[in-house]
Amino acid sequence: MPRQSISFTQPNDEWLKNQVDKKEYSTKSELINDLIRQARKQQRQIDWITAKLEKAENSGFTNLSKEQILAESKSLI
Asked: Are the C-beta atoms of residues 51 and 44 closer than 8 Å to each other?
């Protein structure tokens, strides 16, 4: 596994140490890798939603503007 040297701000380093001290993770490296995995998963979800929204916007499903859609939605409440 590639090794990296990174620096943390004081509050971030303390938070990392606390997580390890609480036995949530055995090492800071394990914690950092988990945070990166979570961020990557979140980005995949954002990319999926963005693609769905772009597809819907480009499909021509409505001729209404954003403002008109908002006004119509509010009138139904």
From this structure: no
Tell me the DSSP string of 7-62: ---HHHHHHHHHHHHTTS-SSHHHHHHHHHHHHHHHHHHHHHHHHHHHHHHHTT--
Q: What is the mean pLDDT of residues 35-43?
A: 98
| Angle formed at CA 44 by CA 30 and CA 27, multiple of 5 degrees | 5
> In which domain, by residue range, is 47 found?
10-75
Rounded to an integer, what distance in angstroms lies between the CA atom of residue 69 and that of residue 51?
20
Average pLDDT over residues 31-55: 94
User: Is residue 50 assigned to a domain?
Assistant: yes
| Residue 57 domain-assigned (yes or no) | yes
Average pLDDT value for residue range 26-42: 97
C-alpha to C-alpha distance for 55 and 57, rounded to whole angstroms? 5
| Residue 2 forms part of a structural domain | no
